[in-house]
Amino acid sequence: MPSRPATPRGLALARLAWGLATLAAIVATFVDAAARGPVNPFNFFGYFTIQSNVLLVLVALAAGIVGLVRPGVQPRWLVAARGLATVCMIVVGLVYVTLLLPVHAAGGVEVPWANAVLHIFGPLLVILDWALTTDRTALPRSAILWQLAYPLAWTAVVLVRGATDGWVPYPFLNPSQGYGTVALYVAAIAVVFLVISWLVVWWSRKRP
User: Which residues cross the membrane (predicted)?
Assistant: First the structure.
């Protein structure tokens, strides 16, 4: 019988290193924001970029530790978490490149190297990790639906906050431009989430 795919030690260490690098970028962003004035944690952690990268930190550290302690096929809960982090980080990269970068918006990350880590290198590395490694099981097709639960909940909270206290994390969600325009952006991003989630699940089943 063929041996079960194992997590190479180097890959496990690389995941740990990237998890720590991402954590450093988040901390640097928080310190930079605090140096310019009081930081409202609900605002700071309200950015989808920050939340997705926090998820990436947790997943990368867990994947690295599990890979070192038990270098075999990773447990299903961890594979599911990796899939969700992959979907979220790909969307982070796409939104940054298509909606924020053209208008020179930092997306809440003013430190240049941290911005690159959180918005560019993070999405690229999760794509490579998901596409090239095999230390995981296939995700069920139902994962496509529950992977959408988190971004839908985040969008709902942002829209409520925009309508009440006026805070929105990204300019394309600002209700001042009209809720029709905001709805178009939300619908477009929802379609992007659905397509990316389908691709992530499909690839996990094609190459488990």
Answer: 12-35, 47-69, 81-101, 113-132, 144-162, 182-203
Residue 2 included in any domain: no
Percent of the chain with pLDDT over 90: 59
Angle separating helix axes 179-206 and 76-95, nearest 10 degrees: 140
**Does the pLDDT value for residue 1 go beyond 70?**
no
Does residue 46 lie within any of the structural domains?
yes
- pLDDT at position 5, please? 62
What's the Cα-to-Cα distance from 207 to each of 124, 134, 172, 201, 203, rounded to whole Å? 19, 7, 36, 10, 6
Query: Which residues form the domain of 49?
Result: 9-206
First to last CA, the chain: 16
Sign of CA dihedral 147, 153, 159, 161: negative
**How many CB atoms neighbour CB 189 within 10 A?**
19
Q: Is residue 50 within 8 Å of residue 89, measured between CB atoms?
A: no
d(CA 137, CA 120): 27
Higher pLDDT, 179 or 68: 68
Q: Of 73 and 28, which is predicted with more confidence? A: 28
pLDDT at 69 over 50: yes
